[in-house]
Amino acid sequence: MSRRTLNQTETRKNPATKFLEWKSNDKCFEYWDKSKGEKGENVKVEVPFKFMFLEHFHTIKGWHDASSSRIYSNEVKFIGKEPINVRSFKGGDIAEGIYSEIRLKILDAGGKYHRSVYVVDDSGDIINIQLKGSVVAAYSDFLNENENKVEGSWCEINTVKDHKKGATNYSTPDFTIGKAFTKAEMALANDKYLEIVAHFESVTAKPEVEVANIEVLVDGDNDLDDLPF
After folding, report:
1. Measured between alpha carbons, how far apart are the two ends of the chain, in Å?
2. pTM of the predicted model, to two decimals?
């Protein structure tokens, strides 16, 4: 029986201990560790890399030139039905509404669609993986092929795929299915998923979401606009 009965989001402390992004040129993930050095440092996470999938959302991130600050938004399960509130840290509101209706305004401001994926790493910590552009496509293809396995098996990235579009070279992680969970690992995944639920649930109940029915959006111009990822 699927554990994914997540409800609408509400504001609480995010349970993720790290926020990873794919760095195309370096062919690895990277996260910001504010405890490193005097002002914090970027830390690389090389492949091979494995994780337990918990849940994923749609969100917007980017850079707002007008205010010289980062763009962010709430995370939603159903991007075709739930409104996204896009803001910049110093410039305030940018756009609010259904993504398809405000997409051009978001792009003009410097925002880009991201897949926000919550997972458990092999040390047992909840981490968040932020995917955009071609990495979203690679991840979506992986889910479509393994929708019945991701809740009971490790997801692994053991190799990196190289691509070329016009004069642009870029890379994507190669997502694969690993070993099935042991009973202890399944119990851990279920417990960690409850932490995600506690963070995002609200009084408005949502129907259970299956991977096959999740909306996936990849902007047609993301491959070039987003490089390097």
Report:
1. 36
2. 0.83
